[in-house]
Amino acid sequence: MKPISHLDDIPSTPGKFKMDKSPYIHHRMRWHSSLAKLTFWSFLFTALIFVLFLRSPSSSSSSSSSQPQHLSDPSRRYLQNTNWGGHAWEKRVRSSARIRTQKGMSVLVTGAAGFVGTHVSAALKRRGDGVLGLDNFNDYYDPSLKRARQALLERAGVFVVEGDINDEALLRKLFEVVPFTHVMHLAAQAGVRYAMENPASYVHSNLAGLVSLLEVCKSVNPQPAIVWASSSSVYGLNTKVPFSEKDRTDQPASLYAATKKAGEEIAHTYNHIYGLSLTGLRFFTVYGPWGRPDMAYFFFTRDILSGKPIPIFEAANHGTVARDFTYIDDIVRGCLASLDTAEKSTGSGGKKQGPAQLRVFNLGNTSPVPVTDLVSILEKLLKVKAKKNIMKLPRNGDVQFTHANISSAQRELGYKPTTDLQTGLKKFVRWYLRFFADGKKSAE
Ligand SMILES: O=C(O)[C@H]1O[C@H](OP(=O)(O)OP(=O)(O)OC[C@H]2O[C@@H](n3ccc(=O)[nH]c3=O)[C@H](O)[C@@H]2O)[C@H](O)[C@@H](O)[C@@H]1O
């Protein structure tokens, strides 16, 4: 745009434009001065319009945009999809989110192509709720598994929009097309150990992404109720067992845990200022079919089958490392119960109108199992002996054990886990063998 180059010739503030004081040229100068002023202000005005245009969210993320904001961050492992919008796209969004039962809800599920996201989306759809998925399909782990989950959801009638939660323009557009009653926010950068490798990705998804989502949720009318994934890792170095929601969570052992804890505080703020109804769920090492390949039960299975040694952590003095492994179906029931019991947000027009619900629940299994037992169960199910490589528990985020007290979720959500590790792993192994034997195409 032309005026930009001219801006360099104009003093930064009009007051600094010095006039010649000679009386001889006074009259001419007045005329010149008016012309100069006019030219100056028109340039300034045009430049301002130009700058505003460049900075506007719709211009930075609409389909015509060339460089979405976050691409300046080299740590990202995906390109933000700007290919959304249009009549056909809106029709798909609307149809996916259509409620097909009385008293149903319309839910925006972020991270829908993720492990928990896929299961929750499918379960909501099965019972007649409207569901729209959102996922950025990043390559933290093999995106082809995410694509397979997407295909599964597609067959169930759930459209998964490809986009990032940091793309506020996309989020606003989605709320424009569908006035979602609920948001199930599961998009996140997961994994405790990877935080040492790529800390920026945790800040991007778990902090900036969460704030971007809450900013949009607080400003739409009606505001949705939000249920979101926190983590058992917030208990960090807490040694009081079982972990209760009242226990201290101010000693995170990893950046991942710290971002989840920060998320809980951010949730408090948006609840307090804007009246958003918010429920945080502290998941305890969730496992099952369609799971995450970065998790121990998943890659132990892969490596046991291929004869590769598996690193098994132990604490000081041969201390046991244990997890309160929780089966996916139990978690899904907890998520749906949280959505069902979520009260409406109270704000409108971006302003709080009264106190709103703010909750945090442990969703665990209440029976921690040593990692060595997990390996023994897998060996039996796979009928292959593992090559064990016993190692010291690394100091990069791992905690020695987790154990959930679920009385609060039991009382308020009717949450009651029913699957023990042996039963759950059996279902996982069956899925795993079928999925990978069938060229990643089969579904359970
Ligand atoms: O519930 C949670 O809060 C967290 O659960 C898992 O984190 P984690 O429990 O560490 O799950 P895995 O990485 O699958 O590890 C499971 C167990 O295996 C152990 N492990 C892990 C990796 C390994 O190479 N060897 C090994 O013995 C870990 O110490 C841990 O006790 C998830 O990865 C997190 O995203 C989630 O937030």
Keywords:
single chain; 444 residues; alpha/beta; Rossmann fold; seven-stranded parallel beta sheet; two-stranded parallel ribbon; 14 helices; globular; disordered N terminus; binds uridine-5'-diphosphate-glucuronic acid
Describe the 3D structure.
The chain has helices at residues 3-7, 26-55, 57-61, 87-97, 115-126, 143-156, 168-177, 199-219, 255-274, 296-306, 328-341, 371-382, 407-413, 421-437; strands at residues 106-110, 130-135, 159-162, 182-185, 225-231, 278-283, 286-287, 310-314, 322-323, 326-327, 358-363, 369-370, 388-392. The protein is α/β, with parallel strands linked by helices and 444 residues long. It has a domain at 81-289 and 330-366 and 400-419: Rossmann fold (3-Layer(aba) Sandwich). The strands form 4 sheets. The protein has a 7-stranded parallel β-sheet, with helices on both faces. The chain has a two-stranded parallel sheet with strand order 7-10. A two-stranded parallel ribbon has the order 8-13. β4, α8 (199-219) and β5 form a beta-alpha-beta unit. α5 (115-126) crosses α11 (328-341) and α10 crosses α12. The longest helix is centred in the N-terminal third of the chain and has 30 residues, at 26-55. The termini are far apart. The model is unreliable at 1-31 and 49-76 (pLDDT under 50). Uridine-5'-diphosphate-glucuronic acid is lined by residues 190-192, 231-233, 283-285, 295-296, 311-313, 321, 323, 371, 398. Uridine-5'-diphosphate-glucuronic acid binds next to β8.
